[in-house]
Design goal:
There is one protein chain. By secondary structure, the protein is an alpha/beta fold. It has a domain of 178 residues: NADP-dependent oxidoreductase domain (TIM Barrel, Alpha-Beta Barrel). The strands form two sheets. The chain has an eight-stranded parallel barrel with strand order 3-4-5-6-7-8-9-10, surrounded by six helices. Strands 1-2 form a two-stranded antiparallel sheet. Helix 1 crosses helix 2 and helix 4 packs across helix 5. The chain is globular and about 55 Å long. The chain starts with a strand and ends with a helix. InterPro entries: AKR_Detox_Biosynth, NAD(P)_OxRdtase_dom_sf, NADP_OxRdtase_dom. This is Aldo/keto reductase. Keywords: Oxidoreductase.
């Protein structure tokens, strides 16, 4: 098992990180039930991986609860990452990175996870309404109290990372050691500025959506409607307009052209499209850990193949070449599929 140091810290994490957004269900999303989710978590840990990622808003908090119950009895051998920022109520202080909201969010996450500490606590987004100094001092207080071990951020732009690290330096408080950005063959925006900034400011990366929201798993082809049981199929059927719009972009001509090249290479190597796409991301400079999001044990084992496969140099270079896009700095660090298909 390969472990790597997360950023400028002493924390060792596995190259594979189990993302748990698909565990539990909400009004608009049907994810894995607790029995299947626990099987996935146990199989992941039994293989020697140690890194689990969740958030307080995943399935309205059910994800954290499922993770907490699944790791009971082996908590000290697991690195649990969770996040705060998203809305939990309709009040003006029920979201964001203020001292008030983050303190409430951390305490609620600790309760749901059934633990007295979080290994990696992350800001899930940037808050324009709260001074970054207040956020970093609040997070430092969590570390000093022993309730949090390390700090990270998710979906920050390059300039936001710099602002946060400088604020921590000025105040003599705990800096971020990690970033969670979106990254895949169809979303490469972070290469222009975000990855270089992470290197300069000591942040490791745990990249999410390495399969392009499911577009690169081999199940989607041109002139075919995504199956209802796929993530993209669920997004297309969503009552939320932005979800339907994003789903359409994920099966755009450009994305499906890249998916077809991934499929061809998988056939040549006797592998699977998912394994090829995951392997490409894992081998990229600046990537510390890759977040996978299986909904079943079968999907988990399919994802494992991407961490065992070493792409030949020629295949990796071909994928790099055909997936290049103009450098665009995305809003909140999240690649906009509409920009990538322009």
């Amino acid at each position: 098992m390969e472990y790597v140091t997360l950023g400028r810290s002493g924390l060792k994490v596995s190259r594979a990180c189990l993302g748990t957004m698909n565990f539990g269900s909400s009004e608009y999303f049907e994810g894995s039930d607790e029995t299947e989710a626990a099987r996935v978590i146990h199989a992941f840990l039994d293989e020697g991986h140690n890194f689990l990622d969740t958030a307080d808003n995943y399935a309205d908090g059910q994800s954290e609860e499922i993770v907490g119950r699944a790791v009971k009895g082996r908590r000290d051998s697991v690195v649990i990452a969770t996040k705060g920022f998203m809305p939990h109520g309709r009040g003006p202080n029920d979201r964001g990175l203020s001292r008030l909201h983050l303190t409430r969010a951390l305490e609620a996450s600790l309760r749901r996870l059934g633990t007295d500490y979080i290994d990696l606590y992350q800001c899930h987004g940037w808050d324009d309404t709260t001074p970054i100094e207040e956020t970093m001092m609040t997070l430092d207080g969590f570390v000093r109290s022993g309730k949090v071990r390390y700090l990270g951020c998710s979906n920050f732009t390059a300039s936001q990372i710099v602002e946060a690290q400088w604020a921590a330096q000025r105040a003599g408080t705990t800096p971020f050691v990690s970033l969670q950005p979106q990254y895949s063959l169809v979303a490469r925006n972070i290469e222009a500025e975000i990855l270089p900034v992470c290197r300069r400011h000591g942040l490791g990366t745990a990249v999410w959506s390495p399969l392009g929201g499911g577009a690169l798993n081999g199940r989607h082809t041109k002139n075919a409607t995504p199956a209802a049981d796929t993530r993209i199929g669920q997004m297309m059927a969503s009552p939320i307009p932005i979800a339907r719009l994003a789903a359409g972009d994920l099966v755009s001509e450009r994305v499906l052209d890249i998916a077809e090249e991934v499929r061809k290479i998988a056939v040549e190597l006797g592998s699977t499209p998912a394994a090829v796409a995951l392997s490409w991301v894992r081998q990229r400079p600046g990537v510390t850990s890759v977040i996978i999001g299986p909904r079943s044990l079968d999907q988990l084992h399919g994802n494992f193949a991407g961490f065992a496969l070493e792409l030949p140099e020629q295949a990796a270079a071909h994928l790099e070449r055909i997936s290049r896009t103009p450098a665009v700095e995305p809003v909140n660090g999240m690649a906009n599929p509409r920009l990538l298909t322009a």
